[in-house]
Each structure stands twice: as structure tokens, then as C-alpha cells.
Design brief:
Layout (H helix, E strand, L loop, with lengths): L3 H11 L6 H6 L17 E5 L13 H29 L4 H23 L2 H19 L3 H7 L1 E5 L8 H31 L1
Parallel strand pairs: 1-2
Helix pairs in contact: 3-4, 3-7, 4-7
């Protein structure tokens, strides 16, 4: 059977690729435009990378896809935390920047987790309060406020996530997010005590 498979692939690859000529002529490079960026008045704006579907071609549900996205962010934040822990334990000169990187990765995870698991109106309200606190701290200086805001990319539009999907995602991911958040906070406390 394995001998037969390459022959099939060769047969398919030898077939000529044909494009409809009317499509080639009707589309020019100037007619292609980038997709618009979805922005919300959050401290962290988000961009939707792909449309929200209830299932994809592989049979995964929307909650499975969102959990997969959050797991990728979790793995990144966990890796950054492990690097920061090693550098803090070794007292390297990079320890502070490694802890900062771990905090940024954790914040990215927390923001996307909140967007997917909380009601968007609540998330907007919370972010507006945080934005107001930051403005008070920096004295309404817009340049520093602009540096504080970040662009958060999400695969789904948080406004279109159904309530039952939010509950399922929260049930499957919340514990790990809490544990990582506590671990990063303990690492920061330990570093400030030293």
C-alpha cells in the first residue's frame, strides 16, 4: 500500500492546474484590500483573525477552538514563567526583563481569557475603570497611555461567543489560568523581597 501511495501522488501532481480565465482577468492586485481591524474601546484592542463558526471542517466545536487558542497562550506564558524562574533563581542580569516578559505573556492570556469568558459589556466596563486609573496615575498624558495600550489578536469575535460557550471555556481553562497567575505573582513577590 505504501508503494502505491507515492504513485497516486505523482499522478495527481502531474495533472495540469487550470484557472478560470474570467477570474484571472477580473481580479487585479489593486482590487485586493486587507481585512479591516476590529477595534473596541478597551485598554487592549483586539483583532479578529478568522470568522466565528460553530464548527470547522475538522468537526471541532467553537469552544474547542477557543480552548485551543487559550492553550497556546497558556503554553507561551508558562514557558516565559519557567525562563523567569530560572533566571531569578540564578540571579542573572536578565532576571528582571525575564519576569517582565512573563508578566506580559500572562497579561495577554488574561485579557483574551476575559474577552472570551465574560460578557463583553462587563469587560468594557472593567477596562474603562482600568483606563481611568491609569490616566489618573500618569496625569492624562496620552503618549504614555498609548504605550500602555496593546493590540490583542483573537481568533473569534468576543461579541459573538454564545453564553454556553463562555461557560464551557471558563470551566475548562480557568483553573490553569488562576494557577499560572498566582505563580507569576509569587515569583514577583519573591524577587522584590530579595
Amino acid at each position: 500500500m505504501t508503494r502505491f501511495l507515492p504513485r497516486l501522488l505523482r499522478l495527481r501532481l502531474r495533472a495540469p492546474i487550470r484557472f478560470p480565465h474570467h477570474l484571472l482577468l477580473s481580479r487585479t492586485l489593486s482590487s485586493f484590500r486587507p481585512l479591516p481591524v476590529a477595534r473596541v474601546p478597551l485598554q487592549c484592542h483586539f483583532r479578529v483573525n478568522r470568522p466565528s463558526y460553530s464548527t470547522n471542517t475538522f468537526g471541532k466545536s467553537e469552544s474547542d477552538l477557543i480552548v485551543d487558542e487559550l492553550e497556546e497562550l497558556y503554553e507561551t506564558a508558562k514557558d516565559e514563567f519557567e525562563i523567569a524562574t530560572e533566571s531569578t533563581d540564578s540571579a542573572t542580569i536578565y532576571a528582571a526583563s525575564d519576569r517582565e516578559s512573563a508578566r506580559e505573556a500572562l497579561n495577554q492570556l488574561l485579557i483574551v481569557f476575559q474577552l472570551y469568558t465574560q460578557d463583553p459589556a462587563e469587560t468594557l466596563e472593567q477596562s474603562q475603570k482600568q483606563e481611568d486609573e491609569i490616566r489618573e496615575d500618569i496625569g492624562n498624558d496620552n503618549t504614555e497611555m498609548h504605550e500602555e495600550s496593546r493590540l490583542v489578536e483573537t481568533s473569534f469575535d468576543p461579541w459573538t461567543v454564545r453564553p454556553e460557550v463562555r461557560v464551557e471555556v471558563r470551566r475548562r481553562v480557568a483553573q490553569r489560568v488562576r494557577e499560572l497567575k498566582n505563580a507569576v505573582e509569587l515569583l514577583e513577590e519573591r524577587a522584590s523581597a530579595d
